[in-house]
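A quick aside before the break. I want you to see a complete sequence-to-structure record at least once, exactly as it would be stored in a machine-readable document. Don't worry about memorizing anything.
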Amino acid sequence: MIKTLENEGGQGMVEFSATDYELSIIERIPAEITTSGSICINAKRVFDIAREFQ
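That is the input. The structure line, written in tokens, reads:
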């Protein structure tokens, strides 16, 4: 089960990546980035928020 998502931004792209040690996914999305950086966030919370948008 995926527990965290890594979110990294820089050079005009935002990259989301996640893994459960058997499977991994990386998604890159074009974006205006004002400050480069990265953060790990709780995957369940992100999925719950995304579900609210449906």
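Two observations worth writing down. The CA atoms of residues 5 and 18 lie 5 Å apart. The mean pLDDT is 89. We'll return to this after the break.
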